């Protein structure tokens, strides 16, 4: 049975405070018994929620972090002075209750945009949240959900006694350009904030930055990584920098793919591999562009091996050398050296229909070592229904 245990020195809790009409959990906290180094990436949307702006300021100041408080059901974005007042009062009350510096607190919100976050339900629930703190993170993982169907988590042992745990939420409004919705990663390794930020930037470029559900970037997106050093193992000493980079990337890729699998109305996930671009960055941009194509998404939903849609989408985001172009879905080659191949279309369509994960590989040039990966989900009738009724 899954234990959902946090790394050494971390505690968490989650409960219903009164924000969601469904009465599902809507308030969670991660707390560290010792100060943490921190790294974060945030939405590139010019419309940013109060929590994003405040967190960026806290991290830039170089403060160590003790707590992250998260609410779901209300994004507290585009809410003016009323929303900012709620954030400040919640942080002030939390700091007093936990006897910690107000500048050691990060916040996150997710939900409907444009409605000020009601501070009273949150503040009135802080004592209960404090009393429920434990090493188990399942309640926290449930408290951050909105339209998600299930909790999303990933964990990895590293070194002799250290662990990395990641928890995320996300189902719609997914097209990060930095991160996607809300992701919280904690580790008991010792690593300074500068190195931690560098590692997160590398991991994010290959994971959350490469997924899409619907092409929309949220106002609240963020990934936060906290490291408290409670295991006694240090990156650069007991754990190599390369091993930590690899482990953090693995966690991020796993979480990012879970977001896509749980995409609103999704029936399947697809992976786009682009090979042969002039640079690895161009390959990633091209892969993400293909994954974002509505025509590609609808072809995947309809189990239609329409290779022209993939090729046309790729050509919008980078150079395609048609003399070297090669495209295959699963192991079936549809296009080779720019020439259409004979294949059993009904059989391939049936294979796509039976599969929950579709793999598409497109070679666009001669530099095969330059690989770009991206993950998307199909676009179904259910996605339209969910979002047509989102606030009604």
Percent helix range: 25-40%
Number of strands: 15
- Write down the overall geometry: globular
SS element count, helices: 11
What would you say about this model in short?
This protein is of the alpha+beta class and 392 residues long. It is built from 11 helices and 15 strands.
What does this structure look like?
This protein is an alpha+beta fold. The chain folds into two domains: 10-261, 4-Layer Sandwich (L-amino peptidase D-ALA esterase/amidase), CATH 3.60.70; 269-388, Ubiquitin-like (UB roll) (Roll). The protein is 33% helix and 27% strand. It contains eleven helices and 15 strands. It has helices spanning 50-60, 80-98, 119-131, 138-143, 193-205, 241-261, 280-292, 294-301, 307-315, 345-354, 381-388, and strands spanning 10-15, 27-42, 65-74, 105-112, 152-158, 162-169, 182-187, 211-212, 222-227, 269-276, 326-329, 332-336, 339-340, 357-363, 367-377. A hairpin with a 2-residue loop joins strand 11 (326-329) and strand 12. Helix 5 (193-205) crosses helix 6 (241-261) and helix 7 (280-292) crosses helix 9 (307-315). The longest helix has 21 residues, at 241-261. The two termini are 39 Å apart.
């Amino acid at each position: 049975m899954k234990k959902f245990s946090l790394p050494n020195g971390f505690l968490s809790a989650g409960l219903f405070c009164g924000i969601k009409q469904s009465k599902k959990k809507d308030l969670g906290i991660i707390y560290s018994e010792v100060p943490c180094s921190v790294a974060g990436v945030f939405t590139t949307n010019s419309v940013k929620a109060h929590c994003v702006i405040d967190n960026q300021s806290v991290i830039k100041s170089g403060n160590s972090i003790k707590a992250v408080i998260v609410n779901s059901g209300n994004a507290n974005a585009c809410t003016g002075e009323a929303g900012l007042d709620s954030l400040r009062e919640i942080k002030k009350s939390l700091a007093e209750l936990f006897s910690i510096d107000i500048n050691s607190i990060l916040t996150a919100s997710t939900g409907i945009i444009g409605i000020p976050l009601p501070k009273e339900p949150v503040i009135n629930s802080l004592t209960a949240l404090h009393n429920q703190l434990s090493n188990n993170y399942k309640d926290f993982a449930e408290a951050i959900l909105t339209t998600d169907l299930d909790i999303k988590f990933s964990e990895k042992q590293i070194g002799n006694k250290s662990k990395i745990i990641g928890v995320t939420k996300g189902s719609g409004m997914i097209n990060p350009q930095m991160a996607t919705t809300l992701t919280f990663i904690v580790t008991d390794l010792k690593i300074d904030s500068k190195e931690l930020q560098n590692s997160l930037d590398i991991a994010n470029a290959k994971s959350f930055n490469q997924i899409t559900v619907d092409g929309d970037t949220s106002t609240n997106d963020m990934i936060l990584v906290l490291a408290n050093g409670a295991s006694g193992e240090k990156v650069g000493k007991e754990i190599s920098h390369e091993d930590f980079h690899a482990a953090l990337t693995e966690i991020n890729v796993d979480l990012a793919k879970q977001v896509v699998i749980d995409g609103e109305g999704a029936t399947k996930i697809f992976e786009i591999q682009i090979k042969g671009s002039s640079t690895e960055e161009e390959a990633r941009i091209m892969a993400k562009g293909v994954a974002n194509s509505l025509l590609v998404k609808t072809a995947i939903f309809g189990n239609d091996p329409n290779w022209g849609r993939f090729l046309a989408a790729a050509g919008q985001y980078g150079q395609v050398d048609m003399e070297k172009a090669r495209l295959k879905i699963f192991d079936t080659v549809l296009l080779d050296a720019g020439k259409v191949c004979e294949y059993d279309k009904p059989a391939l369509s049936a294979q796509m229909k039976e599969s929950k994960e579709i793999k598409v590989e497109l070679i666009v040039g001669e530099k095969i070592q330059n690989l770009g990966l991206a993950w998307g989900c199909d676009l179904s009738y259910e996605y339209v229904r969910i979002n047509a009724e989102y606030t009604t």
